[in-house]
Amino acid sequence: MHLPELTPHLKQLRLSGILDSLEARNRQAIDGKLAYTEFLALLIGDEVARREQKKLTTRLRRAAFRAEKTLEAFDFDRLPTLNRALVHDLATGRYLQEKVAVLIVGPCGTGKSHLAQALGHCAARQGHDVLFTSQTQLLGSLNAARAVGSFERKLQQLARVDLLIVDDFGLKPIRPPHDEDLHELIAERYERAATIFTSNLDFDEWGDAFPANRMLGAATLDRLRHGAYRLVLDGDSYRTPRPLESRKPAVAKTPKSATI
Q1: How far is CA 219 from CA 173, 181, 207, 210, in A?
Q2: Cβ atoms of residues 139 and 167 within 8 Å
Q3: Confidence class of residue 59 from pLDDT cuts 50, 70 and 90?
Q4: Is 25 helix (H, G, I), strand (E, B) or coil?
Q5: Given this model, what pLDDT does residue 258 score?
Q6: pLDDT at 235 (0 to 100)
Q7: Element (H, E) at 192
Q8: DSSP states of 137-188 as a string?
Q9: pLDDT band (50, 70, 90) for residue 260
Q10: Do 87 and 233 touch, CB atoms closer than 8 A?
């Protein structure tokens, strides 16, 4: 197989990954009496698959998902009123091309974060850059960037992400200057990139997240809601505590009679 001669050339061409499957493919070619072009096609296919997997691994790492939450692992049976057809349609990534938002609401523990991350996983597998963050983390990062004079750079970095997922919107009131920062970010992403928001608040309560400046909040939400897809998760929380352990009442010990 001339591996000593092949190795430096493959490394020079940045094709050293071919060495991982070269021996197995060579044996397959001999046993199957494959043509040279068929053997070459197998090796190139392996290299393409390796590179795509490496890119996916990098995208998932940069996405900063909290856990391995996929659509395959989502329990739809717990949410009989959830629009499954819409969820599976969103999984195709059409909203990414439309550059609109997906707004997911529901009580605590119904799977909003899981579903948002699952859609993020689908987007990453389709080749899109994704970032998962909470409202607190997002606004904190923008505020920290402002403090060191890099706000505009941070803003543009967030604005360019193909899919930005903001978890727990409205969990804490958004006060100045955070409300202005969020407005600028949504305005920059408006009709340019897709965004997913999750919230415990009903849709008609989202304005309450901006107690200091409701007009600014209305302008922010107006851009976010334009053309957005909405999902309502209505069901019991899956974060059920374990039942209390039953404890048997302690039996009082009878004191032994004193020996005289």
Answers
A1: 16, 13, 10, 11
A2: no
A3: very high
A4: helix
A5: 45
A6: 73
A7: none
A8: HHHHHHHHHHHTT-HHHHHHHHHH-SEEEEEEETSS---TTHHHHHHHHHHH
A9: very low
A10: no
How far from 64 is each of 96, 100, 165, 174, 183, CA to CA, in Å? 19, 22, 10, 23, 23
Can you tell me the distance from the alpha carbon of 92 to that of 218, in angstroms, rounded to the nearest whole number? 30
Burial (CB count within 10 angstroms: exposed 0-12, middle 13-18, buried 19+), residue 126 = middle
Q: Long-range contacts: 212-217, Cβ < 8 Å, 24+?
A: 212/173, 212/175, 212/176, 212/179, 213/176, 213/179, 216/179, 216/180, 216/183, 217/174, 217/179
The predicted-structure confidence for 131-187, as pLDDT tens digits, reads as follows 999 999 999 999 999 999 999 999 999 999 999 999 999 999 999 999 999 999 999
Q: Write out pLDDT tens, residues 5-45.
A: 788 888 888 888 888 888 888 889 889 999 999 989 999 99
Query: Quick one: pLDDT at residue 246?
Result: 59
Q: CA nearest 120: which of 54, 167, 189? A: 167
- Could you tell me the two tokens for 21? 């499957």
Nearest alpha-carbon partner for 186 in 95, 99, 113, 96: 99
Quote the CA–CA distance of 7 and 25 in Å, as a whole number: 16
The CA-to-CA distance between both ends of the chain, in Å, stands at 97
Strands, E, within the chain: which ranges? 101-105, 130-134, 163-169, 194-199, 229-232
Query: Do 127 and 221 touch, CB atoms closer than 8 A?
Result: no
